[in-house]
Amino acid sequence: MAANVVDARVAIKWVIAEPGTDQVLRLLRHELCAPDLLVADCANILWRKTRLGELSAREASLAARLLERAEIELIPMRRLLDRAAALAIAFGHPAHDAMYLAVAESFGRPFVTADARLARKLEGRAPAVLLLGDFAG
């Protein structure tokens, strides 16, 4: 495994033009992985964007189909449950985000996120957490 770990806030930018989309497109040159939680997180983002009127149901469906074909290796979460819970407790941050960090930690790979609040919280406390804009790829 030599992949960078990405979260849903990064993945969604491949299919929906948002600030940071240009940077995200550079990530596609790399091998990528994420916990299989990514699927539910992306679906939730698409749902929220339709509720807020940012996307039509048709646009959300197209984005979902594109994400289904994305070349991101999905890592089963079950064996990382204990570590993700420990990270969530240690950093005082929701466990679903800690799951991405647990994957990165377990494979010794960078975790690339578009969540500035999470990146700030983990700065200097967790190895190889990169805010999207800081990814040099």
Q: Main traits of this protein?
A:
137 residues; alpha/beta; 5 strands; five-stranded parallel β-sheet; Rossmann fold
Q: What class do helices, strands and sheet pairing give? A: alpha/beta
- Shape by Cα distribution: globular
The CATH architecture category equals: 3-Layer(aba) Sandwich
**What separation lies between the terminal Cα atoms?**
17 Å
Structural description of this entry:
The radius of gyration is 14 Å and the shape is globular. The mean pLDDT is 87. Strands 3-2-1-4-5 form a five-stranded parallel β-sheet. Strand 4, helix 7 and strand 5 form a beta-alpha-beta unit. It has a single domain (4-37, 71-134), classed as Rossmann fold (3-Layer(aba) Sandwich). The chain is 50% helix and 12% strand. The chain has 137 residues and is α/β, with parallel strands linked by helices.
Task: Give a concise summary.
It contains seven helices and five strands. The chain is an alpha/beta fold and 137 residues long. The protein has one domain: 5'-nuclease (Rossmann fold, 3-Layer(aba) Sandwich), CATH 3.40.50.1010.
